[in-house]
Amino acid sequence: MDQDKQRLSIEAARLYYLSDYSQMDIASKLGVSRPTVSRLLQYAKEQGYVRIDISDPLEDLNELVSRLKRKYELETALVCYSPVNEYKEIQKNISKAAADYLHEIVQDADIIGVTWGRTMHAVALSLQQKQVRGVEVVQLKGGLSHSHVNTYAAETVNLFASAYHTIARYLPLPVIFDSVALKEMVEKDRHIHRIIELGRQANIAIFTVGTVNDDALLFQLGYFNDAEKQLLQDKGIGDICSRFFDAEGKLCSEEINNRTVGIDLPDLRHKEKSILVAGGQRKIEAIRGALVGKYANILVTDQFTAQALL
Questions:
Q1: DSSP-derived pairing of the beta strands 238-240 and 204-207
Q2: Residues 6+ apart with CB under 8 A from 57
Q3: What is the average pLDDT value for the chain, to the nearest integer?
Q4: For position 48, what pLDDT does the model report?
Q5: Could you give the CA distance from residue 180 to residue 257 in angstroms, rounded to a whole number?
Q6: Least confident range of 46-55, 71-80, 141-150, 280-289
Q7: How many CA atoms lie within 13 A of 21 on its CB side?
Q8: What is the dihedral of CA 266, 141, 288, 225, to 10 degrees?
Q9: N-terminal to C-terminal alpha carbon distance within the chain
Q10: Top-confidence residue, 51 or 43
């Protein structure tokens, strides 16, 4: 009798858990009543014939958050779930997470410094409207280029300003000048100086990292000659606000950095909230360098990137 019950319980369990049969279908197939099937399934679990493991992605994410915060001395880490390890899917999920986080933290009189690029544009598109007063939104780096490649610079800062019911403060300049002298002369303009200073005063900065791969956005915009591009690829691993750094987070070209318009990397370390939004296999080295350099105290990423960073 026990062997018959054992055999029936295992068969019922196989049909129910592996073949997605309903209890009614199993009853018909085995020639027993539906209540008997229910008892057989319960018996199979009690005897250990069936073991059910539940993988909770949220529980795993919480562990990743704790480990990231410890390893990189972060104030906050937001690790969002991405169903697949593909860049576009990751970008979609982390951009939404960053936008939701901003909705929580932005308050009256905040100054929000914003960069541009594909990820930042995705964040901007995900922003929710929030009724706040006295908020300022300012570009952290120049937003003009000589290329037809779209940087979404103006659209991004406009979407941020619209979400928080304010006006956008632009840096209507190339992000990198041909010479240090020209850049310094332009920065002396009263209006330009005021915008750059507002970026330094921002208590919230939100940005991503670029890579030094051939398809990197800054390389597509025509700012660098071949020798400069080679130098950045040899010494650097990525950029924040168009300022290139190495694996230790240190600038990899003082000369190029001195021609760059916008916030300096060390200024990011002093922000109340310095938010890095980045993920994907191709950006891991750049993200790690940015975290080693302490340019962000808040990281928004996905579970695949988080695991690689650890």
A1: unpaired
A2: 81, 303
A3: 91
A4: 85
A5: 9
A6: 141-150
A7: 20
A8: -110
A9: 54
A10: 43
Residues 58 and 270: their CA atoms lie apart, in Å, by 31
Cβ atoms of 264 and 25 within 8 Å: the answer is no
CA–CA separation, 68 and 288 (whole Å):
11
Task: Locate 143 and state its tokens.
Answer: 């937003």
Q: Where are the beta strands (DSSP E) in 81-228?
A: 111-114, 136-139, 168-169, 204-207
Q: Please identify which residue in the block is written with the tokens 């100054």.
A: 111
Tokens of 170: 């632009």
pLDDT (tens digit per residue) in 223-263: 888 899 999 999 999 999 999 999 999 999 999 999 999 99
Q: 43 with 9: CB under 8 angstroms?
A: yes
**Mind listing the pLDDT tens digit for each residue in 82-124?**
989 999 999 999 999 999 999 999 999 999 999 998 999 999 9
Query: 221: which DSSP letter?
Result: T
Q: Which two tokens stand for residue 199?
A: 């970026």
Amino acid of residue 65? V
Helix (H) or strand (E) holding 92: helix 87-105
Buried b (16+ CB within 10 A) or exposed e, 241-259: bbbbbbbebebbbeebbeb
How far is the C-alpha of 173 from the C-alpha of 192, rounded, in Å? 9
The residues, ordered by sequence, that sit 6+ positions from 298 with a Cβ below 8 Å of its Cβ are 74, 75, 76, 77, 78, 101, 273, 274, 275, 276
Q: What is the C-alpha to C-alpha distance for residues 16 and 244, in angstroms, rounded to an integer?
A: 57
Question: Residue written as tokens 């906050």?
Answer: 76
- Catalogue the E-assigned strands of the chain: 76-80, 111-114, 136-139, 168-169, 204-207, 238-240, 243-245, 273-277, 298-302
Phi/psi at 288 (5° precision): -60, -45
What is the widest separation between alpha-carbon atoms in the chain? 95
